[in-house]
Design brief:
The protein has 368 residues and is of the alpha/beta class. The chain has a single domain, classed as Aldolase class I (TIM Barrel). Helix content is 32%, strand content 15%. It contains 11 helices and 14 strands. It has an 8-stranded parallel beta barrel, surrounded by 5 helices. The protein has a two-stranded antiparallel sheet with strand order 1-2. It has a two-stranded parallel sheet with strand order 6-9. Helix 3 runs parallel beside helix 5, helix 5 packs parallel to helix 6 and helix 6 crosses helix 7. Bound molecules: flavin mononucleotide (FMN). The site of flavin mononucleotide has 24 residues, from strand 4 and helix 8.
Length: 368
């Protein structure tokens, strides 16, 4: 089956992409004290040279004292970190690429295995990361307001540094998702509530602040997931109606693209048909969507964290869905982590040269 549809341009506002392939955000923890190094810049530059349409950075944290649980995760604040990011985007642009940072606040976390802890306790809607696991404080209204402003500041800085868009990390049980989830948001003020729609208020205010900071023309992506890392089969929205009640306020607040995180892109979201999460999100909102999850690989990314390797697989089912119009863009994680030239190999039909994914690739920034 042809992969031609992956190599058609995509244009939205000031975001002009040469193809439909997006590098998925992947935490690499190679930025000591939160500062991206020259090697980090080279890592992204190589993927731009390798013709990835849009690079999304690893999650990079906003200016809150406990927004991270890892000293080597990059900051998106502070002079040194922003100088590092400026180098990243300049090198990506020189190589002909486009890029957006994934703006992140981790919320309530497990302590990192390194033993590093932030200077103040983790913060979240109700101090919980999952049912029965509390490791931090419940945010006050002032904390919430300052966090919203910090998201806005990061977006303004992204635009000022020359990035092409931004992605808000609203998935995977980090801060924004902790507000969405009834098990981690027990608030009785207007940031909580019985319905998923009620619990979108924090995300809506973050999006509105970001939109205010970046203006109408700058593309805003939000990444969302139905699953939780502690429960792969969990669904925040249990029906299409509930999904509409969740996504519509986010779109109304100013989001342009929905990035729908799944472990396996071919899995249907609801019983009605074979549409995946990105397919349903596009059908419900009419907005462009990004799909992701084991594209071109034989096993999913939670397996990767357990040390599992993956072999290259066919892209036929992916292109069938793309051609049908289910989604607009396709994010690829581990294949691009392992091989900066994954896109050019696909484009030129050199499938026999694909390397798959091996756990060793997690231990370095692969540059060739
Ligand atoms: C090493 C690693 C780090 C990741 N870090 C992030 C992250 O910072 N933010 C995020 O939204 N997802 C993160 N993910 C999930 C990926 O973006 C992606 O959704 C997942 O790997 C599935 O895509 P794949 O099957 O193509 O690898 C990470 C995945 C991996 C393998």
């Amino acid at each position: 089956m042809s992969t031609n549809s992956l190599f058609t341009p995509f244009n939205l506002k000031t975001l002009n992409l040469k193809n439909r392939i997006v590098m998925a955000p992947m935490t690499r923890s190679f930025s000591p004290n939160g500062v991206p190094t020259d090697e980090v810049a080279a890592y992204y530059q190589k993927r731009a040279e390798g013709e990835v349409g849009l690079l999304l950075s690893e999650g990079t944290v906003i200016n809150r004292p406990s927004s991270s649980n890892d000293a080597n995760v990059p900051h998106f604040y502070g002079d040194q970190a922003l100088i590092g990011w400026k180098r990243v985007i300049d090198e990506v642009h020189t190589a002909g690429g486009k890029m957006g940072p994934q703006i992140w606040h981790m919320g309530i976390m497990d302590n990192h295995q390194s033993g590093w802890i932030p200077p103040v306790p983790f913060e979240g809607p109700s101090g919980l990361n999952r049912p029965g696991f509390s490791n931090g404080t419940t945010m006050t209204t002032k904390d919430i307001e300052n966090t919203i402003l910090a998201f806005g500041q990061a977006a303004a800085d992204a635009k000022r540094l020359g990035f092409d868009c931004i992605e808000i990390h609203g998935a995977h049980d980090y801060l924004i998702d902790q507000f969405f989830w009834e098990a981690t948001n027990l608030r009785t003020d207007s940031y909580g509530g019985k319905t998923l729609a009620d619990r979108t208020r924090f995300a809506v205010e973050v999006i509105k602040e970001i939109r205010k900071q970046v203006g109408e023309d700058f593309a805003i992506i939000i990444r969302l997931s139905q699953f939780k890392p502690s429960d792969y089969n969990f669904k925040l929205a249990k029906t299409p109606q509930e999904m509409e009640a969740w996504l519509s306020p986010l779109v109304d607040a100013g989001v342009d693209i929905l990035h729908c995180s799944q472990r396996r892109f071919w899995e249907p979201e609801f019983e009605e048909n074979d549409l995946n999460f990105a397919g349903w999100a596009k059908k419900i909102t009419g907005k462009p969507t990004i799909t992701v999850g084991s594209v071109g690989l034989s096993s999913d990314f939670f397996g990767a964290f357990a040390g599992e390797s993956s072999q290259p697989t066919s892209l036929d089912e992916l292109t069938r869905r793309l051609d049908r119009g289910d989604f607009d863009l396709v994010a690829v994680g581990r294949p691009l982590l392992s091989d900066p030239n994954w896109v050019t190999k696909i484009k030129s039909g050199k499938m026999d040269q694909l390397v798959g994914f091996s756990k060793e690739a997690l231990g370095e920034l692969v540059l060739v």
